[in-house]
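Hi support team,

I submitted a single chain yesterday and got back a structure, but I'm not sure I'm reading the token output correctly. Could someone confirm the output below corresponds to the sequence I sent? I've pasted both exactly as they appear in my results page.

Thanks,
R.
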Amino acid sequence: MTLADIIDRVDSRQHTLTVINREEYDPVLRLLEKVFDSENVDVRESGFEPAGPANILQLQDEDGLAVATSSLDEVRDRLLMVNSDMYITGTTPLDEVETSRVVANLDDTTFTVSGKSKFLLIHISRHVERLALDTGAGVLHSGFQELSRIHDERGTARAYRQLTDTDVEVHVYGIPDYDSPPEEMHVHAARDGEIPKSWFVVHDGDGDDERKAALVCVETGPNEYEGFWTFRPDVVDEVLAYLERTYG
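Hi R., thanks for writing in. Yes, this is the structure output for that exact sequence:
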């Protein structure tokens, strides 16, 4: 088994994102389509109803049932119009990361992202890290591909200092391309195999099933990733067991 095998085994859920009574400019809709429209997510726009609330984004399952609703403005401000540099440079602190309900509820859906759309996965990474920070305990496993990112990316360094200041046990994985290993973390260095091409953040919830979360991705091409995020305890436990069994 590999991390890629775990991704392949995900029974990806089919969803529809419906924009209701949009008053936003066309570029916001195009950004929404660029980030989310995929094999497993269909982005649509409903007709305008003057009596209804404006700028609503509704997530529906494959049976057409609404599973989450968010303001389009909120998704715009928290995700679509946010540059990944805000997380890399630390402009957005870890304890201020907020994820809209429609985004969080796209769990167990496989995505392929590339270029600037990769920010979706950066945002979910921070979501899992914040969950670990708020829990303040348990174990967090993070695959960086290159361990130097923990030092070189100011926002990442700040986030992981916050995490190691708690009782969270932090394990980091990647190519050991640093001058000195990250302090107060368990380092799993690898120059070959799947680790240099894997991006994951997994939190065990300190034993609380409701606080377990995982993002698992693999690099499939230059700056292109395929993966999913999940809050299902059984899937999170499977990923944790694989990492602990394979990398100690």
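A quick pointer for reading it: The two ends are 15 Å apart (CA to CA). Let us know if anything else looks off.

Best,
Support desk
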